[in-house]
Write a structure and sequence with these properties.
Layout (H helix, E strand, L loop, with lengths): L1 H24 L11 H7 L26 E7 L2 E9 L4 E3 L2 E2 H5 L2 H13 L6 E8 L3 H19 L4 H6 L30
Parallel strand pairs: 3-5
Antiparallel strand pairs: 1-2, 2-5, 3-4
Length: 194
Amino acid sequence: MADKEDKNKVKKSTTKAESSESVEKTPVPKKSDKPTQSETEKKKVVSPSQKPSVAKSGKKTHLKVPSDSFYGTGRFKRAISRVWVFTGSGKIEINNTPFNDYLKRQVLCNLVLMPLQKLSLESKYNVIIKTKGGGISGQALAAQLGVSRALLSMNETFRPALKEDGFLTRNARVKERKKYGKRGARKGAQYRKR
């Protein structure tokens, strides 16, 4: 019996020694070891300034506005217009195109010109407008508010004249969102008796 116990103890001690050797044999990566090439490729992060620049064909990448310009923002429904007014010969551009070509209708062109005509400044100042969202008529009304606000930032004494014709009033009507369980914003399902 004692011989069997001695053999078991010897076996257990040898397995413990082997397991400790196997643990010691597995290489543990050190902090000083250099990472492999594939690991460095994974860790490379390109900053936005290092990204290759893509040349846009036919589009201006940035807006050139004089430093002495006056700014105003106009909104109507979903349309937003950013407007810059500065001294010049009366040239008006919307999204890098002449405003007559962009708006296409004389009625809409007159809407943009109204604040300038009210103050008789249409031939003394240039206007640059960047607009997006909504339709063309909404963009024209947003541009009108933007021009009015830019003129107001230029000279505070223009306020009574602009306010008289309602050029400084923001029309906040935006389409109400559709609700679940309804056909639209408010309309419910039609009831049918038979």
